Recover the amino acids of this structure.
């Protein structure tokens, strides 16, 4: 009881500061430890208070160390609208603009169990691992990529790394001879940055590039998928013109529900494509395990250099993930996430139609992670999102050049139970113009 | 009992293959899983058998996935002597040539406990972390570096990464304007490789370089340390000539027992030195956590780009390490390792004198990780090490241009209890010329 009082005090203290605007968006709260010391309470008490503030949307740990007064998802967007935000302090109740993982979608207990048992491999943990990644894990990943993404590969072609960037740091020096890379999505700054670091020219023009960096499963943020014909054409075009394809298959697990589309790597027999995959979206963003599949030619040049590059993923995580996949948890995890996101996407769609009737037109998406729609009301997309934001709802602006506002909902961070409430708020926004 | 029989069968099976030379050095054993399937026994049974083969020096998991018939430590050396090795199959009993961590030196149970509790921070693990590294951990590391290495820094200057190379991948683009880097130890290929990848010229000449990459705590492999005066001169030289120092303080925790030597970073006020530190040698090589301390100027340019680089260390490990340091386990871990290695180094020294008397001259080292000595027998260092190796003992050749063989023992992987036996074998090597 005492503890409850204590954390409620802390909760109210910050709630007031934030609501009164004394703590503007983006302000960092003191670290749990410092706060505990200052108030002379236990870290748990502070943690509980912060958790409540999180749940009620006042603060977010997202993309930050410690906790921050809830901010507006992706940086660029934030900068654009910072100025008008300054004198407009509303805490975000429901954030449909930033990605992450739904708390319900990941069974932490299972993962915990595997990490614990991995920690028992004392003998194995005493030595540096294979720079390429643990053999057993590479076997499992190769099998997984063959079965779910029809990739053409063996464990020999797999390189494991702590995130796609780490893998690009190994790949770029291997393909130095190629000078120019075309990014289908130039706004993917964390990708372009690495290539620029190595002195590559980065552009958006496939014709004049030696490398084509593409995300066919994700060609737009709300899940438009590159069709099969287009894929054939691309691999054909690349082969005929001696261009290397880098297929960043990020998010593929949440595509192709009814009609699976083969990976580019599979389509060209794995000879001319480097395939990049990650487990961060499937498991936890905070688990940093990605992999790349190299064509045999690049595999050979990599082997000559592999001892120069240390493995970046801790062996514990590798051992854990290996057994986790082997025992079928990855697949059931994928099924579970798909189910959850599909439900949420259906619920939200129904709610929108139920509340807005003819005023809303729900647009097709290939991803259960997003719901896209057009509101047939007389204002620009910007105004619409600004008003929604002023009422505590963050939305993605999908298209600004339309007569009617077109927006998208990212379903990752808002829980099923909060969808109804958020739509009701949105209804008021529209009603009150 | 049944199990014991089973694993002894597997043990003997491979022991014979290896001793008979049917499985030459470097041959990979089937993965535990495959072996278990083939023989239709439990993975644990196979694991136990492999463990015994490890303990008896027949196989090693070192630097490899799975298990390999014990090989000869570092690659370069291996290549040099591969040819004469081919028709000379002896399994290595005691490997004094390759580094790692002594099984006794690390208390896995404590670390396990911290990882387990880190895995309970569900809310925190659902989001991507700070690209720079978790705030709390950076605070602890900054304090640790200030207290143990008199570094001048705050958490703001700390960048965390999965290994030194990952940090160099962030650093190199920040110092692109500098074109040439001097490595005091050009044989550190994993360092030079990264700089070459970014198009830096790498040489061994401080005069003509813009960057000086040095390991003052480790200026030779067996622990020669750069003296204070030399450090002052170096920082002075660097500042006057506008050269940036990169201080790779790898292994510093095992130096300076009686007379601590300040870090270069501390000596120059942290303005002109990038400090690199790692926890792999302190904890486990398989835990990949390193950090760099940037001068304020570079900290500022890093901040402008930090959102372009994802953090590579899993948040679980960061949370665990943070509490681990905070609760004082890192310091006691260091004390414990020092004690263990000092004991081993003393034991080995005594054994050498006891067994070889005037024939051996133990040379001064500043590191308890190594024992260096000269044997006053009439053969070259190469021959001496080759004979030792033929009898199952791997040694480091420290100097080939001496009348008497000069060698070093790396104490990491051979347990205290095996020291006596290894010296006895060495005695026979010398006796039988």
């Amino acid at each position: 009881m005492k503890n409850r009082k204590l954390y409620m005090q802390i909760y109210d203290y910050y709630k007031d500061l934030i609501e009164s605007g004394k703590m503007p968006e983006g302000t960092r709260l003191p670290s749990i430890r410092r706060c505990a010391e200052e108030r002379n309470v236990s870290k748990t008490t502070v943690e509980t208070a912060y958790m409540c503030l999180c749940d009620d949307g006042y603060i977010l740990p997202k993309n930050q160390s410690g906790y921050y007064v809830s901010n507006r998802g992706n940086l660029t967007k934030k900068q654009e609208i910072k100025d008008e935000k300054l004198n407009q302090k509303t805490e975000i109740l429901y954030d449909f603009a930033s990605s992450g993982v739904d708390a319900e979608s990941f069974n932490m207990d299972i993962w915990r169990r595997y990490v614990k048992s991995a920690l028992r491999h004392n003998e194995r943990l005493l030595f540096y691992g294979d720079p390429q990644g643990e053999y057993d894990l590479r076997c499992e990943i190769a099998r997984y990529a063959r079965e779910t993404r029809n990739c053409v590969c063996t464990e020999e072609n797999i390189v494991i790394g702590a995130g796609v960037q780490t893998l690009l740091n190994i790949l770029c020096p291997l393909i130095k001879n190629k000078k120019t890379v075309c990014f289908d999505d130039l706004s993917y700054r964390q990708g372009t940055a690495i290539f620029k670091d190595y002195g590559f020219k980065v552009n958006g023009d496939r014709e004049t590039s030696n490398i084509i960096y593409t995300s066919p499963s994700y060609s737009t943020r709300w899940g438009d998928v590159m069709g099969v014909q287009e894929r054939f054409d691309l691999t054909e075009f690349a082969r005929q013109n001696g261009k290397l394809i880098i297929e960043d298959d990020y998010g593929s697990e949440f595509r192709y529900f009814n009609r699976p589309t083969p990976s580019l790597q599979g389509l060209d027999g794995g000879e001319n494509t480097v395939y990049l995959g990650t487990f961060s979206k499937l498991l936890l963003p905070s688990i940093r395990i990605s992999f790349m599949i190299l064509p045999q030619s690049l595999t050979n040049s990599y082997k000559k250099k592999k001892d120069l590059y240390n493995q970046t993923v801790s062996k514990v995580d590798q051992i854990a993930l290996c057994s986790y996949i082997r025992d079928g948890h990855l697949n059931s995890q994928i099924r579970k996430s798909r189910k959850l996101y599909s439900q949420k996407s259906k619920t939200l769609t129904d709610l929108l139609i139920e509340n807005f009737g003819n005023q809303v037109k729900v647009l097709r998406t290939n991803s259960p992670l997003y719901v896209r729609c057009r509101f047939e009301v007389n204002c620009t997309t910007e105004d619409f999102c600004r008003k929604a934001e002023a009422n505590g709802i963050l939305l993605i602006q999908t298209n600004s050049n339309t007569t009617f506002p077109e927006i998208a909902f990212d379903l990752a961070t808002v829980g099923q139970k909060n969808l109804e409430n958020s739509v009701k708020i949105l209804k008021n926004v529209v009603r009150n113009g």
Q: What stands out?
A: Chain A has a mean pLDDT of 83. Residues 329-356 of chain A form the longest helix (28 residues).
